[in-house]
Structure formats: structure tokens, C-alpha cells
Amino acid sequence: MTYTQQKHMSYWILVLPGILVFIAIIMFPVIYSFLLSFTNWNGYGKPSYAGLENYKTILIDPVFLHSLRNNLLIIAVSVFGQIPLGFLLAYLLHRKVVRHGNFYQTMIFLPITISPVVVALLWNQIFSSSGMIVALIRSVTQNPQYVIKIFEDPEFAIMPILFVLLWMHTGTYMIIYYANLQKMTPSVLEAAQIDGASEAQMLGRIILPSMIATIATTAIFAISGSLKAFDLIYAMTGGGPAHFTEVIAIYMYVNTFKYYKYGFGSATSIIIVLLAVGLILILQSISKKFERRYE
Amino acid sequence: MKMNRFLSLVLVLLLLLPGLLLASGTKEAEKDGMIELSVYHYLDQTDKTTAPNFQHLVDVFESENPNIKLNFEYGYGESFHDKLQTMAMSGQLPDIILLYPGERTSQVTSAGLVKDLRPYLAGHESEFADMAMQAQGDNGEIWELPEDISITSIMYTNNKLLKNLGLSFPKTYDELIAQGAVIRNAGLIPISIANKDAWPMQSCLAGMLVERTCGMSWWNDVLAGNASYADPEFVYALDIIKDLQNQEMLSPGTNQLAYGQGLDDFVNERAVYFIDGGWTVNNMVGELTDEQKTYVSLESFPDIANQKGKSMSVSATAGQGFGMNANLTDEEAAAAWKWIWFYSGPEGSAIRQQYGRLPAYNLAEPEQADPMIKKLITFAGQVPMGYVMDSVIAAEPIGTFNINLQNMMFGTMTPEEVAKHLEDMVVALGR
Fold first, then answer.
1. Exposure winner among A58, A101, A249, B2, fewest CB in 10 A?
2. Is the ipTM value over 0.85, yes or no?
3. Inter-chain residue contact A240 with B403, CB threshold 8 Å
4. Chosen from B103, B256, B404 to mutate, greatest number of chain A CBs within 10 A
5. Which residues of A touch B255 (CB under 8 A)?
6. Does domain B153-316+389-429 have CATH number 3.40.190.10?
7. pTM of the predicted model over 0.80
8. How far, in whole angstroms, is CA B20 from its chain's centroid?
9. DSSP readout, B181-223?
10. What is the pLDDT of residues B366-381, one digit of tens each?
């Protein structure tokens, strides 16, 4: 065996365990799920081929479309709410605009350290019709029949969940931005200050352009995380009432594990993957445009 | 270098160890005549009433059968069913499993994964309520031995509150509706029911109303495919639920209230009536004061105009019970049957009856039981029983129906649409 062959062989030996683990844990389930999505398998026996029937059924199902709409709202809150707010908070802390920065940093980051189920129980205690807010309003208005109507509205029932998601995840983005802001060379900002740059100019011309890669990465996290949002929503409302707060992951879960439609559930999971990949590709193309502009 | 090799060896062993442990399997050992069996049970281990009660049963069984060791694994809510499905699919079904008589665990029973209990039960059939001995499989199989008769639609009534308001239990639906304003004006909830989970409205109210508006012959016809859920008499049952909602008779925000809140409102005397299943007596034994137990009664929903079913009828089904893995050896199966028979047979049933359950095994009324348990036993002996919808309709149509009942209450679907949707699904998926 020549030296080059030995070298190639050693590469393979070193890489093979990783490849095998990757195939077993990542590739096999994805391919298996993709193949299952074209069947009507109920968990037992031989799957029967269903062609594109599962995909057709899903894409015209009003429950799926409402779930997709809820997911898009969660993405909007993540990308246009959590990320800007997280950046703003990080910026305020970094520029030492507020005193006791460490205290605020801890308080803002705290929600993400709590289990989503505990967060759901906590907010349910506040929002539910046997909860704190309703009890207070009933007591003030002397109306024991009072309930918060937005929870029973198909369009607005998701709003409290969006608020909780904003409350819960903003801290994560704040920490990421804060860490990246601290990596910036202070002399650059000092030089800008000496040259007479205002705070807005420094933010718009120096800080934001240098953070584009980080913003793009966090946006990818936000999109992929939003599309697979499940735990908090399931614990808070279970997707109800009447599917009003359902998201695609709950739709997939219910069909797969409650109705034993594994083929249907697999097709839903493939749609989630395609949506995530599509949105991330759009995002990457936008971020590349910005990167080119500031190069 | 030697140190590096040693560390590499340790690393490899650490990597292999979990795999080796998993590969060794979890099959129970049989040592010194001791038989160990794995049991998968539906139990909320945080429930301060049911969890210790169940543990007492296990303790009694193990003290009487020192050669049988039961290793329990618990699930609760949807996660119980998810895990059961996963275990079944992966060929790791436990030796003894809690199963349901209807559609809920049919993915396990219809796949031939559990034994038919008829050979074990032979000669004891007459000792159980007729409802509990109905066939569970296509060929008459009994997959699980029902522990209880589950009445799912009892109208618990606080007679003290009724008396204070100058009212008495209504004989008709119209009388019930007329009471609504009086009860609400007193700052109370007319009928406490919590429907966030979507199943209570169907299981505890709709099934009973369907028997009232349609009658049992219609029920049998529709199950055989000779009638339709879109029939006007079925729609009439849904109209009543819609009317109860419109007339503000149900708990405010009922579709936002988590199960358990209904009982809480009733026990704390914020509600005059409370609609729930007989299983709630189990909790009432501990939650109601001795004084409350004297004036809380168990009633049937009042008569409905033009009802085709029987007065006082309720919805009821044979409850869940333990079944056994089809792959057990004769010796293991004999040990498993000892537990199943203990639990659902005379001994376990007598213990469970003391705790407020309504065993499927025929027992004499206990002399020392809690007043609420005596009331439940008396009630069960008086009322005609119809079907519980989720025990006779498959998981997907009934799951969708439950959600559609919520839609109907919010006004996003009409009763006719809900009924037609159920019929369409049942036709498409098979009855």
C-alpha cells in the first residue's frame, strides 16, 4: 500500500464512525420518513402506497392551513420581535445605558432557563378563565360570567402564546448579541466617537454591519425553532380550543400518535423541513445582499 | 504512550457499555421460583387519591403472592397512549398492559399482540356486569378484564344551594333552563363542566343526550350503518348543547377550563350542578366535607321534549382493565392472570369499591363505605344505560367531533355541520 493510499485509508477509518452515526441518526430517519410519507402506514403491517395523497390532503386541510398561519405568526414574532428586542437590550447593556446591567441581564435571560412546561403552567395561571386576570376583572366588574374573549377567537387566540414566546426567548438572542458586541474592538467605536459620530451613526454604520452574520444566524435559529414550536404551546393549550392555537408540529403529533397515521405524519414533517429550508434560503440570499453592500 | 492506550481503552469501553446494557434486554428474570412481570399502567402518580389507593392494591397482591414480583411503569394522559404505541411497534410490549374495551387501544388488541382472556375467565362470566362481558374483539375475544363500569354522565347536584335559591331538581330541560337566571343572579355557575380538553363535552354530555334524543334502537342502527349521524334526532342532541351554551348554563369559558376546574368549582360551592363521570366520586370522597356529602346527590339529566330514549338514562361503558402480552409463557401467563383476576375479580374490586369505584365485578353494597360511594352504587342500580360515544366510534372521527363541538359552541360551525362532518368521517374511515 502506497503512502497516499495509507493516508486515504486512515482518513476513512477516522471519519467512518462519524459517518455511520450520522447515517443512523440523521439520514436514515429522514429518508425513512420521506418514504413513509407516500404510504398509508398505521404502525403495523405492510405500508400501502398512497402516492401524493397525504400531501394533497394536508395542503387543502383548513386545520393545517390555520396551523401554518400560526407558525408564520410565530416566525414573525421571532424574527421581527425577539431578534430586534434582543439586540436592543444587548445594545443598551453593552453601551451601559442602564445601571445594574448584570441584574437586568440575569432577569431577561431567566425565562429561557425555566422548563417550557413550567412556563406554560405559570402563564395559564394568569390567562385562563379560572386565572388571576379573569378573577380580578370579575371582582372589579361584579360580573361572574366574564371571560377573556380573544381566547375563543380563531384569529386572536394565538396572541397570548406569541406574547409568552416573546417573553421567553428574547433573552437568548440578547445573550448572543451581547457576547458578539463584547467581541467588537473598542478602539473602532472610540475612533468614531473622536471623529464626531453620533450614537445612531455608530449603530447604523459600524455595529449593525459588523453583526450581519450573527443576525443571519440568529434568524435561521428563529425560523427553524418557530417551525418546530411544540412544547410550550402543547402544554399551554394543546392547540385548542378548536384548533385555534394549533401549530404544524401539534398537527403532526395528533395525526401521527393519536390517530396512528404515520404516513400522514411523515408527510407533514417533510413539509416542515421544506418550509424551513425554503425560508432559510430566502434569508441567506437577503443576508448575502447586505453583506455585499457593506463589504 | 501506555497511558494513551489505557485512556483509549477506557473510552471505547465507555462507548460500548450503554449498547451492551441495552443489548442485554430488560426481560424479567425468573430466579428461585420468583416470577417478575413488567406492568404498564395508566396512573397519575401525582394524584394524591388514586396513586396511594393503587399502591395499596399492589401491596396486598404482593403480600399474598410473594413469588410474583410486578415491576410497574406508569403513563398518564396522551403520553400513556404514545408510549404504548411505541412499545407495541418496537416489539417491547410489557407482560401486563392496561387496555381499553373500545377503540382507544385497538391498535394493540387488533394486532394480535395480547392474549384472549376467555380461557382464563371461563366459568366466572356471570360474576360480572353484563356490560363488562361484551365482546371486545371481532370474534368475541375479551382482551382485558374490565375493572369498572364507567358511568360518564352524572349530574352531581348541590341540594343545599338549590334550597337556598328556592329551587328543586328540575324534571324537564325547560325547567333547568328557567333556573339559569336565578342561579347566575346569585353569582353562581348553573352547570360546572370544564371542556378545555374537548372530550368532556362529548363523553359526559353528548353521549347521554344522543341516547335521550335518538333512543337505543337508533344507536344500534347507526353503529350497524342503518342510520346516519346526520339524522335530525342526532342534530337535536347537539342543538341542546348549543342551547346550554347560548343560555349561559355552562361554566363561563368552559372551553378554556382545564379538567379538574369543574370539580373544583363544585366542591367549593361555586356551582349548583356539575356534570362528570362516576370516576369523580373517587375524588369526592376526599374532597367533600362530611356535611357536604349529606346534601350532594347524584342525578340524571332532566327529560328533554320529544325524547325517544329513556328518562334518567346515562351513558356508560365497561371500563379499562389489564390484559396480557401474547408472548408470555404458560407459567408467566398464569402469574399475570393472578394479578388480573386479583385486580378486577372479587378481592381487588372490594378494595376499589371502598375507594369509590364502581367495579364491574358484582358485589354486595358495602356496609362501611363512604356515603358518596353508596350513592354511586344506588344511582348505578337505578338508571338505564346508553353508549359512550368514544367507546363506539374510532379515534379520529371522535377526536374531530370533540373539536367540532367546541367549534359549534364558538359559533364557527352549526350543529348540522358537526353532525354531517361526523357522518362523513365515519363513512370514509369505516364504522
1. B2
2. no
3. yes
4. B256
5. 152, 240-242
6. yes
7. yes
8. 40
9. HHHHHTT-EEEE---TTSHHIIIIIIHHHHHHHH-HHHHHHHH
10. 878 889 988 998 898 8
